[in-house]
Amino acid sequence: MRMKTKLYASAVGLATTGALVLTTGGSASGHGYTDLPISRQKLCQNGSVSNCGAIQWEPQSVEGPKGFPASGPADGRICSANNTGFAQLDAPKTPSGTAWPTTKVTGGQNYTFRWQFTAMHATSDFKYYITKPGWNQNHNLARSDLNLTPFLTVPYNGQRPPSTLSHSGVLPSGLSGHHVIVAVWTVADTANAFYACSDVTF
């Protein structure tokens, strides 16, 4: 649309945005999560953040209603996708009371985002949102904290992704300090999507 930073990548990773698709073998029952930049659920699963509850065993299961931001998870429950069992993901600090670990990124630079899948659902698209300058870091993430126009959209046209999928796009410029990227994987043939919140530092 109008935003200079809104990018489109083809489902096969063709190159208008330098998108690329990587595959690795193996799959199991489950769904998916992001590990570049590392998501809160993956930080819980790999032990970087402790006392996370059930999400530490199933980082791929942050599934909720699709249609974000017009619908989808409620404000304050975006990072857990409305799953009360994963409420630790919504809190502005880890269960230990410390800041969520962040990934260093640079605005205006290309970044490769990566998903890991344990079930390869037919996919509508992937969208990436980010918090606005001056967002409220002291409460659970709400739509009012986010730029509700995705800075990267990757159409997937109903295809099924491989077990690992990477695509590249330019991070928004003009941001500094701590921000949260909300990655949304929209499933084509169900009413749901998968959500992943990643804390980054510009």
TrEMBL record:
Organism of this sequence: Streptomyces fumanus
Stretch forming the signal peptide: 1-21
Domain of life where this protein originates: Bacteria
InterPro entries xrefs: Cellulose/chitin-bd_N (IPR004302), GlcNAc_Chitin_IntDeg (IPR051024), Ig_E-set (IPR014756)
One Pfam short name: LPMO_10
Subcellular location: Secreted
Keywords: Secreted, Signal
GO cellular component term of the entry, any: extracellular region
Protein name listed in UniProt: Chitin-binding protein
Residue ranges of domain Chitin-binding type-4 in the record: 31-200
CDD domains according to UniProt: LPMO_AA10 (cd21177)
Keyword Signal carried by entry: yes
PANTHER family xrefs: CHITIN-BINDING TYPE-4 DOMAIN-CONTAINING PROTEIN (PTHR34823:SF1), GLCNAC-BINDING PROTEIN A (PTHR34823)
